[in-house]
Structures are given as structure tokens and as C-alpha cells.
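Homework help board

Subject: predicted structure for assignment chain

Our instructor gave us this sequence and asked us to write out the predicted structure in C-alpha cell form, then describe one feature. I got the C-alpha cells but I'm not sure how to describe them. Can anyone check?
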Amino acid sequence: MSTSRAARPHYDVVVVGGGHNGLVSAALLARRGLSVLVLERLDHVGGAAVSAAAFPGHDVRLSRYSYLVSLMPRELMAELDLDVSLRSRRTASFTPTLRDGWAGGLHVHRPEDHRTETSFADLTGTEAEYRAWHAFYSDVERFAARLAPTFLQPLPTEAEARALADEQVWTDLVRRPLGEAVERRFSDDTVRGVVATDALIGTFASLHDPSLVQNRCFLYHLVGNGTGEWRVPVGGMGAVTDSLARTATAAGAELLTGAGVCAVRADADGAEVTWDDAGGRHSVTAGHVLSGVAPWVLGLLLGGEQDDTTKPAGSQLKINFLLERLPRLRSGVDPTEAFAGTLHVAEDLSQLETAYRQAASGVLPDVLPGEVYCHSLTDPSILGAAPHGWHTLTYFGLHTPAALFADPSTREQVKAEAVRRAIAALDEHLEEPLMSCVATDAHGRPCLEAKIPQDIEADLAMPGGHIFHGDLDWPWASGRARLETPAQQWGVQTSWDRVLLCGSGARRGGAVSGLGGHNAAQAVLATL
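My C-alpha cell output:
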């Protein structure tokens, strides 16, 4: 699907970075008859939304980085004719617990029914906590259902967004630290933690952080398509970007891989993009440049000085496993139910806050909070020819900021210890050690692949390993924002009129949504 060289010296649009957002921009603009060139540093497009055979000897296609889809609007998928199936997980979440020597858990079914209500009562000893849960998420969903349609429109103003929310919801989610609402509306430590985790994905913060970065992360994780449901892409994340690449090339876009952009020069009339590939250094001019790379990286490409004080910093530990069998749980819950959704590990609110304080002091948390899920229970197609009963398992750890791994001389040691603690936290709830279930690869090594922020930066050129290219922002314009140009109106502006953001660093970027790509394309089309 990629070309070997640029076909012309000038393009209407050059897209820097062939991640999913860049492909969305390319497809939409090429369909409107614009000449489009996509330049991707790696030997394949897709960015973080790819599938990969990570373990030698096993043709199992893991979603190596991004792994679930929620924020990509159905309308956008239909417009792009994406040949992708997104499946619901039959379990929303399971949180194993150990209380007074009793192994139990909180089981949230999809859809929620009397079994969910019973699980809350068994854990907390009262019916009140489930009523609080149901009321809270009903409040959030009403706001989400009203806000989600604006994502494919020019930015609403803050006043317009405020009108979409009930007064208390706006206060809880937008005005005050999320921890206040969580502690006010829920009594049980485990329930509070399950609610809180959506605020901490790739986001290093306390639930009471005055910056409200945790609130913004929470909102994005609950608003997708008006429901906040995170679904499994059949065939893995690579199926999403493969389909996007087919749509883009069918529309006439050129995709050039192995092309590392080294400079972007812009003026009032257009831009020039320079890249290096196996054949040397090349340049083309363009009417517009759309940047799928992080804003911090774009600043360097535009000739700015490197300023490490403004560099984003990620906070996650991603571990991919291939298992010969799912481990049995001490609670006796069927592992095919427990691991089908999001399994929360050491994510009571008190544990989350303790882990944050320890990591903020520069120490790896004693008990690592994280969440686990099994893609292959919902979509066995990724297993290829793996024996019956084998499964993939994905762990996503919280409160593991890049600073903990900053020293190159101890990085691998600290990383190995983080992996050990993550596994130990899960083992607390298992009848058998997780590692006893892990398959071995063709070289006899455990099928375990771990990625810390530094690995994400090295693999994907995301500065600081920040999975959102930087902290998320509110999906509306602030009260003092200038909304004079199409780029400003769509939240994709830079300091240069001819250079726009189309990636996760755009105003409504983050996660696999295509919103940055869609909105940058709309801003370009509005200038024609």
C-alpha cells in the first residue's frame, strides 16, 4: 500500500506521520480530489494502532500498543467505509478482592443486570453502593450523549458545552478535582478505585490534582460515541489502520514509508517538507502540512530549540503475554468471565493514591496498580494457529512515570522490578502463578513483552513516551480562545497558518479516535 518515492514536487497536503489520524486526514482529503503525500518514518503505517507477531515461533497478532476502541465516531467509520468490526466484551469489569481472608470480587456485567447489583451487595454489604454507581454513570452518560456529537463539529465554546451538562455533573467533572465527587458519591474503597481508574490511563496524577488533568482523562474515557464503551477490534488494532490505509490509497493518497521527516519550513504561502530515506534526502512543497507527530516534535521540525522542560512525560507500563491457559482465580470466578473485560488489580482508591505518592517521590510503588484484559476471549482470530486454550493477556500499569526509569544505567533493572511487581499484584488473586501459564517462544523464553515510556518513545517517537502526545485538553474552546480561522475553530492550529495538527496533540486528540485527522481535514477544506 506504500509507494517507493514521491510522485511529484508539490502536493496540496503533506501529512507528517502515518498513524491512524494521519491516514484519516489523507483519506478524507484525497477523496475530495486533493493531492496528498503521507510520510512515515517506520517501514509500515499505523503508528501505535498496529498488530504484531511479538513472539518468535507464534503467529499471534497482538495489539502491541493501543488495544481498544471507543472514541472513533461511528459516523466517521461509515464515511471512510472502514471494513472493521468492533465487538463488545461480555464483561465490563471484574475486580478481585481479598477481605478478611475471603477471596471475592466486584463483577460488572455487560449489560448490567441483577447479577451486577448482587455483586455490589455481596462486596459492600449494602444496596446503596450500586444505586450510587448507577446514578453516577447515568448522570455522566447523559452528558456524554450530548457532548459526543460535537466531536465532528467545530469546537463548541465552553458556554455551549456547559449547557449540555447538568449543573452538578459540570461541577464534578469540570470545575472540581474528580476525587471529590468519587469520595462524596461512593463509600467503598474498591468501588471508588474502579471509578477512578479511567482518570489515570497514561496520566500521572492524584485524583485531587488541582490541574484537573485527571478529570480531562476521565471525560475522554467516558464519552466515546455517547456511551464510553471500549470495544475490541476484530483482527487487532492493525485491522483498523490497514483498512484506513486501503481507503486512503484507493482515494489516491500516496503513502511513503521509511521516510523520516527531518525539517518543515513554512511561510504565509505554503510549506516545504524534507525527509530522509534509504535513497537519500528529499523535499517537496505543499499547500498545507498536517502534523501527526506530537506538537513537541513538530516544534523541533520547524526549527525550534529542544526544550526538555516542556517535553511531555508518559506514565504507563504495558505488558503483553501469550498464555497456554488462563490462570485460575482464588475467588473461583470463571477466568473466561473475569478476564473478558477489564480486570482491575490493586486499584482501590487508597492503593491508587499511595502508588501515586510513592512514584511522585521518585520511588517505584510497592504495589503496582494496573488493569488486565484478554483480547482473544472476544476475538480468537488473533491467535492464528495457536493450540486450543491459549490466550493473549494485556496488562496496563498506572503510576509508572518516565522519571522512574530515567537513569540509563539502572533502567533495565527498574523495568524488570516493575514487571515483577505488576505480576505479583495479580498473583495475589490467583490460584496459580501467572508465569506458570505463560508460553515460551522459539528460543525458550517466556512470551512476555514489556514497554515502559522510554520504549514507547524509542519505538514510536512519542516524546517522553506520552501516549496522548501530551496532557489531554478539554474538548471545547476556553472562554478566551480565538476562533477566527478554520484551524482555530477545529482546534488544530499551530503558530503557522499552513501547518496544522492532525494527531493526538490536536485539541480533541488522544486515543484511537481519528478525531485529530478528521478535524484537520475539515480545517483544510474550509480554506478552499
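Reply (TA_rk): Your C-alpha cells look well-formed. For the description, you could write something like this. The longest helix spans residues 128-147. That's the kind of observation they're looking for.
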